[in-house]
Amino acid sequence: MKQHKRVFLDFAYAAVILVTAFALNLALLQWFRIPSVTPMIFVLGVFLIAWRTQGYFWGIVSSLASVMAVNYAFTYPYWAFNLIRPECLASAVVMLMVSIMTSTMTTQIKRQEQMKAEAEKERMRGNLLRAVSHDLRTPLTSIIGSANLYLENGAMMQETEKFTLIHNIHEDANWLLNMVENLLSVTRIQDDKGITSVTKTDESLEEVISEAVRRFHKRFPGVTVQVHIPESFIMVPMDAMLIEQVINNLLENAHFHSGSEKPIELKVRTENGVLYITIKDHGKGIDPKRLPTLFDGGGVNTNESGDSHKGMGIGLSICKTIINAHGGTIQAANHADGAMFTFTLPDWKEY
């Protein structure tokens, strides 16, 4: 059914482009007496058809149709086919060759771009899988180790030692839950073919940020987040749950990796028609060598210390996927006193 719909849409698109090219040439010939641009307009139409439709078929068919249209309506004798005269036959052959070559090259370029996009998608999927294996293994190892230690030596432990073990198990279990929520976020924006899309509704940016910060404070009540939002009322088309996930991931990232107890800043600003949301910490910053690949699944730090919170590969990779699905951008940078992450959201309205 989908294939039939695709064929119909390609046919309709090709027909509209060819009819438009024909009408435009008639108008130019009648009003401005410019017959020399006729072949170029049809070649442009073939280019657009080959670029928009699937495969070679419609590009080649439109090439043949364009040649016949030029011969019939725009070559003397007008409104009659004449492929016998040498000049008519030669012009038809040349135009057909140019049109077919244009169609072929356009289709090849489009396929190369599709292959490049698929390769990039596979690379991102591989990075995400590596991040999953890394970020899940460490807290699981910690939970198993703490549980074994308690089971084997619990009778001889002090209450403070028992509390520390249980606290570590609880913290690592919460970390695992957060990573599972991240992975579930991917299922909200990707179908079984890996196509990314989101369902947007107009949401109050202030309410979404407030909910994300509240969710963050529920896990980390002792961490201060300073929020700076414009006084104006800002509405943004978004999937609120996914944007909350992005903000929560970036807040947790700032908390775990800054190495500082200073407040985290969350600032919203508008500049030159662009809406920016920045989360800034005041800590040790990010290794500059990691910045170019930070969102590819590698995370902020390697897990050299065995700290189960070192890996943020899943979170950052999913942040990028969510923001890209919304049509925005996300980037990381160092500032004079730490690191900051900034993402944008399009189509916002300010009241």
Protein architecture, described:
By secondary structure, the chain is α+β, with helices and mostly antiparallel strands. The protein is built from 8 helices and 8 strands, in the order H-H-H-H-H-E-H-E-E-H-E-E-H-E-E-E. It has helices at 2-31, 38-52, 57-73, 86-153, 159-189, 205-219, 240-257, 313-325, and strands at 201-204, 225-228, 234-238, 264-271, 274-280, 330-335, 338-345, 349-350. The protein has a 5-stranded mixed β-sheet with strand order 2-4-5-7-6. It has a 3-stranded antiparallel β-sheet with strand order 1-3-8. A hairpin with a 2-residue loop joins strand 4 (264-271) and strand 5. The longest helix has 68 residues, at 86-153.
Give keywords:
59% helix; 351 residues; three-stranded antiparallel beta sheet; 13% strand; five-stranded mixed beta sheet
Tally of DSSP helical segments:
8
Strand elements, count: 8
Question: What's the average pLDDT?
Answer: 83
Give the distance, in angstroms, between the N- and C-terminal Cα atoms. Answer: 45 Å
The order of strands across the largest sheet is 2-4-5-7-6
Q: Which sequence of SSEs, written as H and E, runs from N to C?
A: HHHHHEHEEHEEHEEE
- Which structural class matches the secondary elements? alpha+beta
- Major sheet description: 5 strands, mixed
Helix content: 55-70%
Oligomer: single chain
Shape: elongated
Radius of gyration, whole Å = 30 Å
- The residue ranges in which pLDDT falls below 50 over 5 or more consecutive positions are 301-310
Strand residues, percent: 5-15%
